[in-house]
Amino acid sequence: MPRLRQAVAQKVADRLFAVEAAIDEALTRAAELTAAMPQARTEARLPAMVGQDALDRATEVLVALVEARRRVVETHKSLDSTRAQIGLREVDAGDSYPKPNPLEPTGSMEDARIQRIRAVA
Description:
Blueprint: H1 2-43, H2 52-85, H3 109-120
Helix pairs in contact: 1-2
C-alpha cells in the first residue's frame, strides 16, 4: 500500500510541478510584455496616453498571475500536509532547493544546497 500511495502522490506532485512551472513561465512572459509596452511607446515617440488601456490590462494580467502563483503555493503547502497525514515521507523531487522550514531560521539558498549535497554524499 505505501508504494501505491507513493506512486499516486508522485503523479500529483508531477502535475503540481508542471503547474508551478507554467505559471512562472506565464508570469515571466507577462512581465516582459508589460515592460516592453512603455519602452515601445517611448521608442516610437508616442504620447503617454497612447496604449494606456492596454498597459492597464497587461498589468491586471500580471497581478492575476501573481495571485494564481500564490494559490498554487498554498496548494503545494496543503498537499505537503496531506502527504504527512497519509504517512508518506518527503522525497527529493521537483525544485533543486529544499522547502524552507518555518520552524528553523532561514539561511541562504546556497547554504541549503551545500547541506543537501553533503547529505547525499
